[in-house]
Design brief:
There is one protein chain. 40% of the residues lie in helices and 5% in strands. It has 85 residues and is mainly alpha-helical. The longest helix has 14 residues, at 15-28.
């Protein structure tokens, strides 16, 4: 996938923007970053991470994976505190 010229546009969308979208879709589909690096021709993983930025919605599913005490929230029911009489 070549970089092309910055002036290359199709209906107002620059080639550069399509490259970002393509990389983000690959990450969301589970393509490992090292493989995406090779597919996209980037020189470093840092550049892959710049291109493959994701929306907050993509990572929201993982936000509750770890609870306060380092355990998965779904594995332990919420604790209740007995009421004093």
């Amino acid at each position: 996938m070549g970089e092309g010229s910055g002036a290359c546009k199709h209906r107002g969308l620059p080639w550069h923007g399509l490259r970002h979208t393509w990389a983000s879709w690959h990450v969301q589909a589970g393509t490992p970053l090292a493989d995406l690096k090779e597919l996209g021709g980037w020189a470093s993983l840092e550049m892959v991470q710049r291109y493959a930025h994701l929306s907050p919605d993509h990572t929201a599913q993982y936000a509750a994976n770890v609870g306060v005490h380092g355990t998965k929230m779904a594995q332990s029911p919420p604790r209740t505190v007995p009421q004093r009489a």
